[in-house]
Task: inverse folding
């Protein structure tokens, strides 16, 4: 069975670009449009290998999602890789301290994304 | 270019990068040659660091992209050496993040990689990399590459500094360091593009008699005065100065010096004339405070021209209009502010000429009142008249009130003119009352908004009534809705005072403005004047007829007299009578006549009432009977 990866981004284009790379590499993709949907998908898919998540999204952003997952009494969820145009060190630091496992500044290079995915998803198994 | 940096590239007119990117000083903590190395391979990293320290660089080391970014922010190295495959944040991402930092565009970034495919190199350059270096690195090669890179970076820095200086001069006034005309136009374009509403105003001003300061105290003193004016205005409005001023948020007030003693202030939040006048007054007060110029106390005034942004989108046009308004201000009192109005460029010199002539009209006896009779709709008798102003200018010939009243309103001349009208009308009515045929005739006078708000209005009127001996009941003041709207509390107080004296109050032009029933209830009016446009249209247009009918019915309900203006035909007369209109006025009866002709008309009418409909009913219900009889002949 192929590994599941949850892709959370409000841009359909980005979700599609990421999904193509992941599906071609043999992963199964679940898409979510914001942090709230993303958190629900993470809770609903305990077997997911990892999530790839945007930072700035309407409604619930990526950092808020990370923090909400971490705040739960029994912290749940798979490792999360942030994929965003944001690059300010204080924001990246906030994500790291909330448990993010990596940070890629968009636009992404497929090989770099896959390298990060393999590393994070591989650790998870 | 020596580097691959494209962030701070050409800044031609078409591109318009934020000026801060070329004008603001370099963000760099020290000029020492400094390198940041980000690599999680500790051996490779310390080998490179040692090689670079050996040739005099200060080296900061980090094992991942995030720590590298933090060090970059802290130390601002000229050069960053980034391994691609670093944990948490990779080299390409770190490179992009550095480029997005303030001042991060100035550094040279070298990416260390063994990915030497075309695609990776292109991706790296796109991410903002200056150059690539392949691992494993030869220390000698590294030293020379980085030394060369450093010199190139320094050269580019120098270039940027000179370019910043040139850019600064291109957008700033050299004397005051305020933004110049070019920066002003740029700010205005940004403002006009970004604003949501129609707020905002342009204030163009210069100093009255500045040339005399230069002539008397010398140009250096004149320059000092200009700088002090700039300081006062920026201080007064909290205007941003310094390198950020040209790119300031368009929500903030902007001050530019155009040259000489000419400045422009743009206030993006001004919502209308009153606001604009408040800003102008603050400016005049700031400039009007005594200057200490090399031991001489001098007082200087300014003239301000205002154009409201409104729906206009053209900075040049707005400046032209403010300029026209400023010359208008200068042509008169100076030390004041004028709002641009269309008449300034449509009529231009003619208007200025008219203003000058109007100023002298009272003194030259060129103003005259004509009187249009008002007829009781039922009894057919003359109840009074409306005094209408005529101006026969020796210079311009007969000028229509439609042309000169707005000029009077704008210039404030309407106040003395209005006072003259009141005096003349009261004097005339009082004189008429001496004759038995004309006794009790009520004269109606239009009061302009500006006159009504004038602080001396009530005092003037009280004096005029006393001097002319006219019974207040015989004076009717016609006031438009617009006059009441600005400050209803103030208006109510004035109206109550007038009412307490017994002055008759009419709401003029009802139906053309807001036609608020609230005004009728809240203010102590006696009469409602239905606008001529309803009378004109009521026989051809059901809507107008319905409104006219409803207005008259409502006025009766409120116990108000209703006067219909502009009655021109027998049909209109008949219809208005069936609606229960109380009084009528219009060409059907008579145009406005000079006093002598009016007397003759009244006398003649007394004898012959052929065209009148026969009296057949009692005066309409609702007419007040507390007022002395005003009919000039008994029914």
Result:
């Amino acid at each position: 069975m192929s590994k599941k990866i949850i892709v959370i981004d409000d841009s359909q284009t980005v979700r599609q670009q990421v999904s193509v790379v992941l599906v071609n590499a043999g992963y199964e993709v679940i898409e979510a449009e914001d942090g709230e949907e993303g958190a629900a998908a993470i809770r609903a898919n305990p077997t997911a290998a990892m999530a790839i998540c945007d930072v700035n999204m309407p409604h619930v952003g990526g950092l808020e999602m990370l923090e909400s997952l971490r705040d739960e009494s029994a912290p749940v969820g798979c490792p999360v890789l942030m994929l965003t145009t944001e690059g300010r060190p204080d924001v990246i630091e906030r994500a790291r301290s909330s448990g993010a496992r990596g940070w890629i500044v968009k636009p992404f290079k497929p090989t770099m994304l896959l390298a990060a995915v393999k590393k994070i998803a591989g650790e998870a198994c | 270019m020596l580097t691959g940096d494209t962030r701070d590239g050409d800044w031609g007119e078409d591109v318009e990068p934020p000026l801060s990117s070329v004008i603001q000083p370099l963000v760099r903590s020290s000029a020492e040659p400094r390198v940041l190395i980000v690599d999680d391979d500790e051996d490779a990293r310390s080998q490179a660091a040692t090689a670079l320290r050996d040739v005099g660089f200060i080296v900061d080391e980090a094992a991942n992209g995030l720590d590298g970014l933090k060090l970059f922010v802290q130390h601002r190295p000229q050069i960053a050496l980034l391994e691609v495959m670093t944990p948490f944040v990779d080299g390409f991402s770190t490179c992009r993040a550095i480029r997005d930092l303030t001042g991060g565009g100035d550094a040279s970034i070298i990416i260390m990689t063994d990915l030497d495919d075309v695609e990776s190199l292109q991706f790296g350059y796109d991410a903002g990399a200056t150059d690539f270096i392949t691992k494993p690195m030869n220390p000698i090669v590294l030293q020379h590459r980085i030394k060369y890179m450093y010199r190139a970076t320094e050269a580019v820095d120098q270039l940027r500094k000179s370019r910043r200086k040139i850019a600064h001069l291109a957008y700033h006034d050299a004397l005051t360091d305020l933004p110049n005309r070019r920066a002003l136009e740029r700010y205005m374009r940004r403002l006009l593009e970004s604003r949501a509403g129609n707020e905002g105003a342009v204030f163009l001003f210069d100093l009255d008699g500045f040339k005399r300061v230069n002539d008397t105290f010398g140009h250096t003193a004149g320059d000092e005065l200009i700088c002090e004016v700039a300081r006062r205005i920026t201080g007064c409005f909290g205007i941003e100065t310094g390198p950020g001023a040209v790119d300031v948020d368009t929500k903030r007030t902007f001050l530019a010096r155009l040259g000489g003693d000419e400045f422009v202030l743009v206030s993006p939040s001004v919502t209308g004339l009153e606001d604009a006048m408040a800003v102008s007054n603050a400016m005049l007060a700031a400039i009007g405070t005594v200057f200490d110029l090399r031991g001489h106390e001098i007082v200087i005034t300014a003239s301000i021209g205002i154009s409201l942004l409104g729906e206009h989108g053209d900075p040049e046009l707005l400046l032209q209009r403010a300029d026209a308004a400023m010359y208008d201000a200068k042509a008169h009192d100076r030390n004041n502010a004028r709002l641009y109005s269309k008449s300034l460029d449509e009529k231009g010199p003619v208007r200025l000429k008219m203003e000058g002539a109007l100023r002298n009209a009272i003194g030259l006896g060129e103003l005259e009142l004509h009187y249009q009779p008002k007829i009781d709709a039922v009894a057919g008798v003359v109840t009074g008249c409306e005094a209408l102003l005529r101006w026969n200018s020796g210079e311009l010939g007969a000028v229509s009130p439609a042309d000169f009243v707005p000029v009077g309103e704008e210039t404030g001349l309407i106040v003395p003119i209005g006072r003259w009208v009141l005096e003349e009308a009261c004097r005339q009515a009082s004189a008429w009352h001496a004759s038995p045929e004309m006794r009790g005739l009520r004269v109606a006078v239009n009061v302009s908004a500006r006159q009504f708000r004038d602080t001396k209005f009530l005092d003037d009127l009280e004096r005029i009534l006393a001097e002319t001996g006219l019974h207040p009941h015989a004076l009717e003041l016609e006031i438009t809705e617009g006059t009441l709207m600005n400050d209803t509390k103030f208006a109510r107080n004035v109206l109550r005072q007038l009412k307490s004296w017994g002055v008759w109050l009419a709401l003029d032009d009802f139906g053309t403005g807001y036609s608020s029933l609230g005004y009728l209830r809240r203010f102590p009016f006696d009469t409602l004047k239905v606008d001529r446009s309803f009378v004109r249209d009521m026989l051809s247009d059901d809507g107008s007829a319905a409104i006219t009918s409803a207005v008259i019915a409502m006025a009766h309900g409120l116990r108000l007299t209703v006067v219909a203006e502009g009655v021109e035909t027998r049909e209109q007369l008949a219809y208005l009578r069936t609606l229960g209109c109380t009084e009528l006025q219009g060409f059907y009866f008579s145009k406005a006549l000079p006093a002598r002709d009016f007397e003759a008309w009244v006398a003649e009418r007394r004898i012959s009432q052929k065209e009148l409909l026969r009296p057949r009913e009692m005066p309409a219900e609702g007419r007040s009977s507390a007022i002395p009889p005003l009919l000039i002949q008994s029914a």
